[in-house]
Amino acid sequence: MAKHSSLWMTKVLSHNLCTVLKVPHDPVALEEHFRDDDEGPVSNQGYMPYLNKFILEKVQDNFDKIEFNRMCWTLCVKKNLTKNPLFITEEDAFKIWVIFNFLSEDKYPLIIVPEEIEYLLKKLTEAMGVSWQQEQFENYKINFDDSKDGLSVWELIELVGNGQFSKGMDRQTVSMAINEVFNELILDVLKQGYMIKKGHRRKNWTERWFVLKPNIISYYVSEDLKDKKGDILLDENCCVESLPDKDGKKCLFLIKCFDKTFEISASDKKKKQEWIQAIHSTIHLLKLGSPPPHKEARQRRKELRKKLLAEQEELERQMKELQVANENKQQELEAVRKKLEEAASRAAEEEKKRLQTQVELQARFSTELEREKLIRQQMEEQVAQKSSELEQYLQRVRELEDMYLKLQEALEDERQARQDEETVRKLQARLLEEESAKRAELEKWHLEQQQAIQTTEAEKQELENQRVIKEQALQEALGQLQQLELERKQALEQYEGVKKKLEMAAKTTKSWKDKVAHHEGLIRLIEPGSKNPHLITNWGPAAFTQAELEEREKSWKEKKTTE
């Protein structure tokens, strides 16, 4: 009997589910499913496998979700709804129940977390037109049961129904706020209100109740939504424009769709701007393919909670690792403490040994101290001796610096003597050049004289006269040659004077060099470099080189050929 009664209730439930979900009902499949089950739907071949296989797998997205929620509400409300008197109606409780299903976490058993409770209470408070009391909610969170992650649906209904967050509000205001939040979150109502619409056929203006949803604007005779007059289908190609006042109508705007346009008049400029902005935002979301704002915000909040939960789990994991590491450290510290105790006992024994040896070491240290004092005294004497030697060394360095300055002066004198020698050599070279020119001229005249003697006898007298003239010229040239010889001797005398100066400078340099060598070679004497070999003439060392002499012979030959 119990089996048949349970089976009959299962058939009724299945038939109602199929009717609401718009799935074809197959009673034969239900009979076949439970035919060999002696214990009925509660066995391992119970109702859930049948529900998943023959009903839920066939569900399409064309059923009325509100009716489905209402059916589920009917099945569970009597058993679970609190018996305490509530400040809201059963219809309002049903809407809270549907909102709970929308905001709850995606895991069983269903709960609504404190963040979503705060979101719902804020929405209700805003809909009632009062300010949100954050401090009151924080106090509520403090008294919240830490063992629970959130509230069940029945606890949420009791929280809203007991009027804790709606004090001072009447039941009608609370009911209207619940209905407004229900329309927004469940029915996807983005905006609603009365406006005047221009007809397409009669061109008359009629007041309608407009309801804006993510892809449609529906308009009704009144706000009870019983008499629907039409729809405005929205897509990404629609647009909304503001119109100037006309025909006695103000606050006009136009909605352009693919095949129709709709002229609408709002009650005031503020309402007009709100409706234009809401419709424009809806069309923009359709272009982007985005869900309604409240659904997108819900998804972001869930993702944020998941992220925070993952971070919290990671933090807990790290805390556990730190705790394990801390325990390991404690064990290590305990081992170290034991080692320190052992080391302390060993140190005490060593301290005893140290005290025993301290007396012996003290006597040894006294002996070492006396010896150290003696060594220190000897070291002080050595330091005094070294200081005296250092003073003598510094005095010697100062003398050597003075000698170095004097040596530089002697070298400067030697350099000046060499410059004078070079001047005399240049003068000798000029005199020799003039002497060579005169000799060349005399040789030329002598050659011409011999040629003249060899010509003819007739010309002898004339040549004799010329010879006399040339003899006179030769005498004059000899006089000039003697003068040049005298000048050469004077130059040699000057050269001898310069040479003596050089010898004296060399002797001075040699004496300084000996002094430097005598002072242990602290500085190195700067000596003049070696000279290149010079030619030797009949009058002594030449003031020119072999290359200069060849150049001068070449120039003499060129002059001779030109004459």
What does this structure look like?
The protein is of the alpha+beta class. Among the domains are: 1-63; 72-290, Pleckstrin-homology domain (PH domain)/Phosphotyrosine-binding domain (PTB) (PH-domain like); 393-430. The protein has helices spanning 2-21, 27-34, 47-54, 65-80, 90-103, 114-128, 134-142, 153-161, 171-185, 269-288, 293-455, 460-518, 546-562; strands at residues 191-198, 205-213, 216-220, 228-233, 239-243, 252-256, 261-265, 536-537, 540-541. The strands form two sheets. Strands 4-3-2-1-7-6-5 form a seven-stranded antiparallel sheet, with helices on one face. A two-stranded antiparallel sheet has the order 8-9. A hairpin with a 2-residue loop joins strand 2 (205-213) and strand 3 (216-220). Helix 6 (114-128) crosses helix 9 (171-185). The longest helix is centred in the middle third of the chain and has 163 residues, at 293-455. Residues 188-284 form the PH domain.
